[in-house]
Amino acid sequence: MIPALRRLLHYTRPYLLYLILTVLCSLIGVSLSLTVPVYIGQAVDLAVPAAETGSIDLSAILSTVLRLACVVGISTLFQWLQGLCINRLAFGTVKDLRTDLESKLQKMPVSYIDSNARGDLIARVIPDIEILSDGLLQGFAQLFTGVVTIVGTLFFMLSVNIKIAVLVVVMTPLSLLAASQITRASHNAFVWQSKLRGELSGLTEELVGNIGVVKAFAYEDRAEERFEEISRKLGTAGQRATFFASLSNPTTRFVNGLIYAAVGTFGALGAVGAMPWIGVMTVGDLASFLFYANQYTKPFNEISGVLAELQNAVSCAQRVFEVLDATAPDEHAAQTLPAEGRGEITFENVSFSYNRNKPLIRNFSMHAKPGQRIAIVGPTGCGKTTVINLLLRFYEIQDGRITLDGISTADLKRDDLRRQFGMVLQETWIFTGTVAENIAYSRPDATREEIEKAAREAHAHSFIKRLPNGYDTVISDTSGLSQGQKQLLCIARIMLTDPSVLILDEATSSIDLRTEQRIQRGFEKLMQGRTSFIIAHRLSTIRSADLILVMKDGNILEQGTHAQLMRRGGFYAELYRAQTA
User: Fold this and answer.
1) Percent of the chain scored above 90 by pLDDT?
2) Contact indicator for 133, 92 with CB cutoff of 8 Å
3) CB 364, CB 141: distance < 8 Å
4) pLDDT tens string 206-236
5) Residue of 418, 372, 510 whose CA lies nearest to 109
6) Which has the higher per-residue pLDDT, 457 or 426?
7) Partner of 504 at 20 to 30 A CA spacing, among 34, 92, 104, 152?
8) Residue 324: CB partners within 8 Å, gap ≥ 6?
9) What is the structure's pLDDT at 555?
10) Which of 14, 292, 27 lies closest to 153 in space, CA to CA?
């Protein structure tokens, strides 16, 4: 808890001015508010003689009340300014924290995103940060106001009556002890609650994002059972956290009530002279002291009242810092690539596995010459897409070396490396925006003529013109476009990038055969002079490849041209005949 709180305070450094202003406003506002009991005591002492003489000095009381009103007004103004500064401090700090978290996620490799539930990551970026914001805001408010109030009240009480002030101070640890014990018990409950909240967000994102699959396999009942199970655990954790947190406020209020009663009792006895050792106290002094005793214990009550928010905020901060502390890839690359690479790629004894106990690719070697077309085929799970993931450094290899134009990809920055590649995946991705913005995703500065040219080459221009606003039609992943139309937009997107290396991972899998034949002609033009990697299940689409790599169980089983592999009559020939039988 303490390390997380210390790191949170580190994020407040850019807002040091607001921190200083908060302290100053707190000092002035609370100091002025602490003079209010003094004026109340004076007014009481002015009114007491009326019980004996039957007359009252109204002018003196009115003057005291006016001074009291001025003090209250000025104190309120500074307390408002304090709240404004705290808001700037807290929300600025949270903004920086959220920005760092998003930046860290952008720098993390795909392997990190794949190994964590996406809903849980979303929960850390949005709801956890919001909870942290609320807790941080209340925490700063109670910290500054509470400390100044306690110190200032103690000073005024000592100035009124030292002995009763010492009695209040001696009894204060009882309140602190009760609050600390409850804090320790509630912290673990809030950490558990935050973890379960992330699990529930992850499950919800998974189920809602794949609702079609859930319904197709009649998984609704089991999905509800999984959701209810985590919800039940979250409810238990929430009840436990709320129970311990709710104990804090009434417990400290009870202890503070005892303190207030002791002050009232001993102060009254001192005022009537029953306990001379207490000292001389007027009725006004007693009234002032009771106000101070109440104000002295009030910060403890307020801090304990927001204890639940603070505990929840710290547990959320720990979850956020877990992401920030994740090991990011080394981006201190020393070498750079020329703007226009040649596209020569070499795999040298590369080994990789997603799970160390289950080897996938072992001693994989391959050389792709500039402008060569490399087709990678094989059964599902043989490592075809994994080769592409390693080439783009979505995952880091465990042994061996991959070079691009003679430079190890491990010595290149990822941005510099990936600018050399253009990739069309089997899965399409369309974001909310116009058609033109979707096509120009990697080249926002592209002209409309360049965008339309890329769309024509991808055979997407005709259906785009039929949309309500053509290239200015706003689309999204749920806007009603067919899977084939989305794929055409993705192909147009890659044609606009003009990369030195082209990767086609089942790029035409969602397109009918007639459209595929037309797009293949576009690909033929696009692949001219570029090194191309083609992953395909339909072997008829890669017959013209310069080199076909036949993979099985992470190894290259055969390699050669289509004609060479067919004459050899091996595994490739069996696959081809099975598809064309």
Assistant:
1) 4
2) no
3) no
4) 888 788 888 888 888 888 888 898 888 888 8
5) 418
6) 457
7) 104
8) 100, 101, 104
9) 76
10) 292
Tokens of 105: 């996620």
187 contacts 1 by C-beta, under 8 angstroms: yes
Find all residues with CB under 8 Å of 432, minimum gap 6, and list them.
474, 475, 476, 477
Q: What is the mean pLDDT of the chain?
A: 80
CA 201 to chain centroid, in Å, comes to 13
Are 105 and 323 within 8 A, CB to CB?
A: yes
Poorest-pLDDT segment among 246-255, 386-395, 537-546, 554-563: 246-255
**DSSP string over 333-373:** --B---SS----EEEEEEEE-SBTTB--EEEEEEEE-TT-E
Q: Which residue has the higher pLDDT, 163 or 511?
A: 163
What are the Cα distances from residue 470, in Å, to 260, 445, 459, 475, 495? 75, 19, 14, 11, 19
Structure token digits, residue 501? 């290396």
Please give the Cα distance from 80 to 145 (Å, whole number): 12
Contact present, 436 and 473 (Cβ < 8 Å): no
C-alpha angle 253-254-257 in degrees, rounded to nearest 5: 85
For 362-427, the DSSP string reads EEEEEEE-TT-EEEEE-STTSSHHHHHHHHTTSS--SEEEEEETTEEGGGB-HHHHHTTEEEE-SS
Mean pLDDT, rounded, for 494-518 = 75
Q: Quick check: helix, strand or coil at residue 555?
A: strand
CA distance 551 to 545: 16
Looking up tokens 């029953």, which residue turns up? 274
Mean pLDDT of 250-260: 75
Paired tokens of 162:
């030292």
Q: Which element (helix H / strand E) includes 532?
A: strand 531-535
Domains identified in the chain and CATH numbers: 2-324 (1.20.1560.10), 345-580 (3.40.50.300)
Angle between helices 483-497 and 448-457 (to 10 degrees): 120
Helix ranges restricted to H, 217-306: 220-271, 283-305
Place of tokens 């913005």: 437
136-150, 381-395, 407-421, 521-535: least confident range: 136-150
Closest CA to 18 of 80, 75, 84: 84
**CA dist list (Å): 392 to 148, 187, 207, 552:** 57, 43, 30, 21
Q: Which residues of 96-135 are buried (b: 16+ CB within 10 A; e: fewer)?
A: ebbeebeebbeebbeebeeebbebbbbbbeeebbebbbbb
